[in-house]
Please model this.
Amino acid sequence: MRILDDLARLPRSFARDMRMTKVQALVFLTSWWCWTLGSMHFYLLPYTQPDVAAALGVPQSQIAYANSTSMLSRTLGAVVFGILSDQYGRKLPLVADLVLMGVFTLCSGLVQTYAQFIGLRFLFGQLLRGDPPKNGNCRKQMGCWADQDS
Model:
């Protein structure tokens, strides 16, 4: 059970090393983990392209277009989540982004048609860019969160 003890102490030790509060460290680690899983979802599609194309009954080039669609929709996601972050603070859009990213990732494994696949990839691309910790000022943002909570 040594691994479980180490995992339980991870937020506290990470927070101490990075000079963050425990809540800030948990937000950072959760955001980083969700973004990593989202990026894997994006970058693993080319490796599974033949299987996805066969399952949906479309040529492989159409699956490549789906990945391009998610890349192009990232700009729209940055604008939408930037406006939401300005109006509602950083926490609420971040939580909504991470929850929806998980839902759309799950749903992309259940699609039956190419249109559903394109739609989910478009939405997923928006969420991938809407993830605030991708900004260069992540530590500054979490400092702002700590000010709001106290």
Summary: The chain has one domain: 28-149. Helices lie at 2-18, 22-43, 49-56, 60-88, 91-108, 114-129, 138-149.
